[in-house]
Structure formats: structure tokens, C-alpha cells
Amino acid sequence: MVKILLRFLHIIYITVIIISMKSIIKKRTWKAIYRLLDRVSPIERDCGLLCGAVCCTCGESGDELGIYLYPGEHKIHNKKDDWLEWTVEAAEDYDFPDSWTGPVYFVKCKTPPVCPRKKRPFQCRTYPLAPYISEDGILEMVYNDEQLPYSCPLIDREIPLNDDFVKATYTVWSHLIRDPLIYDLVEMDSRARDEEDTD
Question: Of 142, 175, 192, 177, whose CA–CA distance to 32 is shortest?
């Protein structure tokens, strides 16, 4: 019953939001999410010491990677900060859900691996975990298995993650997927993971 009600509410929100990509996640919620994630870490020490902060520097590949900000996340960042390079792209030009229309903000760190830790984007705070929604609609946390030009020792060596980090990451994702835009992205990524697992 709850799943049907959530799906119904999701459809109503999508109808309203599809006109313009506007997140229902408020700036104050993003701030609260950042504060919660500031208190946890994947392991007891700086995991960047294991690999030379490969996720920040892309290791020896020389590739310059950036990340996209989730809908509404741009509200808590200052585009004038000198440590981030910003670009604005059309969602339709990338592999985002159909409900994503209009601008998507991409950021790239200009000073890797050093950044203002309290200002790190959401994806930097939750790596190496990613959200997964099962076919039954259950939210789970899984290792991020995206194809990247580097390998993460936390994933490769299956180093146990701190329970408080896993719980906090689950908590914030359970709030974020209430936003239909974010739910659509997690759902799309989850089905893509399912297809990869069957190949």
C-alpha cells in the first residue's frame, strides 16, 4: 500500500516538475545533509591516504573529471568560489532521466586533492557508496561500480566501511529520493546495474 501511495505521489510530482526541473529539496535540507555527512567518514582515517586521493586527482590517468550536482544542490555552493570550476549543461544532452530537463550544474575541483572539506559536493561525501532501489522498491547502499579511470582501494580491497558512515549515507539518500527527480535518477541507475549484472 505504501509503495502504491509513494508511486502515486511520485507521478503527481513529476507532472508538476516536468514543466521545469525544480527540486523539492530545499537549501536548508541540503545544508542539514552536508552537516550530517561532515560527522562521518568511510574509514577511521583519511581514505585518501590509501591511494593518493585518486578519486580527487584521477590518479595517473591525467583525466580531468568533474561531477554533476544533484537537483537543488547548487543552491548551497557559491559559483564565485575559486576552488571550483562550474559549467552548466542541458540535461537532455546527457544520460539523465527524461524527467530531467533544463540546466544541470557540473563542477570540477581546481585544486585537487585539496579542497575546503566542509564544502565538498554530495557525491564526494558519500563515495564509495551509491544508492540502489530494488525491483521491490527497497533502498539499499551498494559500492559505486561506475566505470572510472581509477580504482578505489575501499572497493577493490573490500575494506569494511564505518557503520556510522553507511547509516548516515542511507539516511540522506532516504530523504533525497523523496524528490521525484532524484528518485528517477536512482531508479534509472539501479535498473542499469541490474542489466549489467545479467550480462
Answer: 175
Judge whether residue 199 has pLDDT over 80. no
What are the cell numbers at 89? 549543461
Q: Measured between alpha carbons, how far apart are the two ends of the chain, in Å?
A: 33
- The confidence score (pLDDT) of residue 15 equals 42
By percentage, how much of the chain surpasses pLDDT 90?
54
> Taking phi first (over 0 means left), then psi (-120 to 50 degrees means alpha), and beta for anything else, what does residue 109 get?
beta
Q: Which amino acid is at 165?
A: F
Q: Which amino acid is at 69?
A: L
Tell me how crowded residue 50 is: count the other CB atoms within 10 A of its CB: 15
Asked if 119 and 130 touch (Cβ cutoff 8 Å), the reply is no
Q: Which residues contact 183 (CB under 8 A, 6 or more apart)?
A: 10, 133, 177
How far apart, in whole angstroms, are the C-alpha atoms of residue 165 and residue 38?
A: 10
pTM > 0.85: yes or no: no
Q: What is the pLDDT of residues 20-51, one digit of tens each?
A: 578 899 999 999 999 999 999 998 877 777 77
